[in-house]
Amino acid sequence: xxxxxxxxxxxxxxxxxxxxxxxxxxxxxxxxxxxxxxxxxxxxxxxxxxxxxxxxxxxxxxxxxxxxxxxxxxxxxxxxxxxxxxxxxxxxxxxxxxxxxxxxxxxxxxxxxxxxxxxxxxxxxxxxxxxxxxxxxxxxxxxxxxxxxxxxxxxxxxxxxxxxxxxxxxxxxxxxxxxxxxxxxxxxxxxxxxxxxxxxxxxxxxxxxxxxxxxxxxxxxxxxxxxxxxxxxxxxxxxxxxxxxxxxxxxxxxxxxxxxxxxxxxxxxxxxxxxxxxxxxxxxxxxxxxxxxxxxxxxxxxxxxxxxxxxxxxxxxxxxxxxxxxxxxxxxxxxxxxxxxxxxxxxxxxxxxxx
Amino acid sequence: xxxxxxxxxxxxxxxxxxxxxxxxxxxxxxxxxxxxxxxxxxxxxxxxxxxxxxxxxxxxxxxxxxxxxxxxxxxxxxxxxxxxxxxxxxxxxxxxxxxxxxxxxxxxxxxxxxxxxxxxxxxxxxxxxxxxxxxxxxxxxxxxxxxxxxxxxxxxxxxxxxxxxxxxxxxxxxxxxxxxxxxxxxxxxxxxxxxxxxxxxxxxxxxxxxxxxxxxxxxxxxxxxxxxxxxxxx
Lengths: 355, 234
Known about the structure:
The complex is a heterodimer of chains A (about 350) and B (about 230). By secondary structure, chain A is an alpha/beta fold.
């Protein structure tokens, strides 16, 4: 198929449809409105169902129901809306249901603003909702990668019976880039024999549940889910290392910020400063081993994490670096996007021992 | 430049209206014409003409933006100041209209003024955008835009592109499909738009005037001046 020029939000929606998603439940919020708008136009054309719910809380519970019935289903929102969805997300994780949740992050806290931000990292990777659980969190940094990760995300969700989150930001949602919808090889997925599709007496009753009254049973349930998380960590961790060979400073960034850091690497090279980039593609599982593998290298003097937040992923970077090298942070927040020159200045300060 | 005083840029969502409107305004101002650009986009939260307000004002162009544009308010409301451009007839006025029929809706309220004066309404087309790759799809959207704006498209613009991956065959394929549109609705293609490096390589027989543009709507990692965060200066 030839390339088309798409906004990030539109690309997410089209990729989901091409991955076989036929159900979308959501509630509008900027800067992700092109996703529901596109779904509203396109889903009826392919025999699917778009429904604008009365609230985010209703939408996530519709996702819970559709996922329980074995459907490929998604919802999308932006920061405040995702906060509203947290109870349902915890139920979905507890009931081990596959679905795709898109968060096109905007500035917070509270209603915040509509400009791009990355300040929902903690919420996405450290829980957000209550209880012991994890989302698998994918962080694209180009529109093409958004397409690829949405399609992959549905498969990962089905393979592990676990909700997957696409963590984008307003910039990625709104910008336009050429994309291609490639023929892809779907994973070999287990049958959804757990789905509540109607009991006709020919198999044991399927029950979708996240309530376990007996503490021992609940503990066993949670421990079993955590074994599954170990498999996800082993099989699904994705990271990109760029220009790290010989790098003096390794910058870590994801999504839009990683694009900016690539410009910084060019600017730094012009001044003879060797800068590398570690770009986590999965934020959970976090590519801790990749950091460990670079940290012992002599040429690496320090790590710098750049985010559109007051410093969230930097905690995982610092943990992975484990005190073996200094770990610094630079961020802008509230919808402000870091300028490549300002990041370069930070790098120079670190080199000069001024931080 | 065009004779009409009121120039409108409409089109499918993401067809490149803003980029063309900004370039048109700058060309107009450079020709010595008093120029006003009205950012009438009520659809896009960012990548709007208001973001290049500084550059436009440097060229002597007055920019009228929706209240709160590029701030944190979800729905930009339109300022009363817009009515002044119909009263003071000394300036050329360029309207950058939001995409699809949703964006065109913002024009409806100014209908009485457009009825009193000649206007030129461009419809910008990029066949590499979703739901606009065939003549039928393009015509159906264009008719919705006309309905909602209560105005008639007078000229078409071929702005077929794949951003930084555009090849001349994209533009040529766009031209062929837009020629079908043009024949079918009897509206002329006024321009083929694109960056000059590409337009220079087009065959002579492309059949309409060329409109070379410079790209002003850029993501923040491309050529930001030192010390400036990505944000419009209001």
